[in-house]
Amino acid sequence: MVSMGFWPTRWVLGESSFIVSFRPLLTVFGYRKTLQTISFLAHMKAKGVWGPFLIVCPLSVLHNWISEFEKFAPSIPVCMYHGTPQHRLELRQTVLRQPTSVGEPKPKPKRGRKKKQVETDLPEQTTLTFPVVVTTYDMVIRDRIHLSKHPWKYIVVDEGHRLKNMNCKLIQELKQYSSANRLILTGTPLHNNLAELWSLLNFILPDIFNDLHSFQQWFNFGENTNLGEQTTGIVSQLHAILKPFLLRRLKVDVVTDLPPKKEYILYAPLTSAQNELYQATLDQGVHAYLKKKALDSLEKDEEEVEEAAEDDKRKLRKRTKPVAPAYLLEDEDNTYFEALERGDYDMPEG
């Protein structure tokens, strides 16, 4: 199992929301972020935090999440919320019934519709038996009216870089869900775009990061690009603000026997064409350079056309050369063969 050591206790107990970046290990270790999250949820249950928990992921990894739960945490009930509308309705009426707290009396059966009577015949649903729900982006959008009724303890969004666009349908729907904490798993590093970064932070902590304009003013690099020390200070300030919310696992944290990374800087000289264009750019003569290249290309094309025309003429002359007449018995042999040797006639075919 992957160590939980790099997730401090205050996060493990569900007192904060955060972003976890697994980028350095994704291509090498495959499902480690899935296993790390399963370990996290298992640890929370061991500490008495029963959930409910909602995991939202792409359809391509939906079955992988279920299989990893069955493999590494078989004691944790898990529900794959996906399928036809009828199948999802059955899941909501059975597996995903609203749980009662441990020790709370079971609600009395209600008269009326048959559906309610069927529900009361099912085993008691408590926070201990309520499963971890794994579903897709599409399902949380389609069935928000049903899934958002649950008071989720944690909402985990796999491939969370999908939430970088603050205006996308997915993030707008997820914000309608009630949740005590939110966790984003991403293998894509944060881009140099404050709006995208703010979108992620606003999703996990909307009460703190509630104003995009103010956030952009805090870290406005546009007017300070020439002030090295001030820019460095802004970057350090940004790192300090992100540190409580961004957990990034590095290779050295997990695989201690890896040799240190070596960096080699190789300089590749410019090609002749690149050098000409570079010099033209420095001399502010790009327009003249491109015009000259266009004229040269046009002249080259004209030369090629002329050569092709001359070649066609040569072929035409060769085809129009008189063919040696049929050999006649009354002709003199010497006259006939002398004409062939001089090239007066082409050799007859066949």
UniProtKB/TrEMBL annotation:
Record GO terms (molecular function): ATP binding
Region entry Disordered, spans: 96-121
Keyword NAD: no
Residue ranges of every copy of the Helicase ATP-binding domain listed in the record: 33-207
Annotated InterPro entries: Helicase_ATP-bd (IPR014001), P-loop_NTPase (IPR027417), SNF2-like_sf (IPR038718), SNF2_N (IPR000330)
Coiled coil residues, start to end: 291-319
Domain of life: Eukaryota
Keywords linked to the UniProt accession: ATP-binding, Coiled coil, Nucleotide-binding
SUPFAM superfamilies: P-loop containing nucleoside triphosphate hydrolases
Protein name listed in UniProt: SNF2 family amino-terminal protein
Organism: Rhizoctonia solani 123E
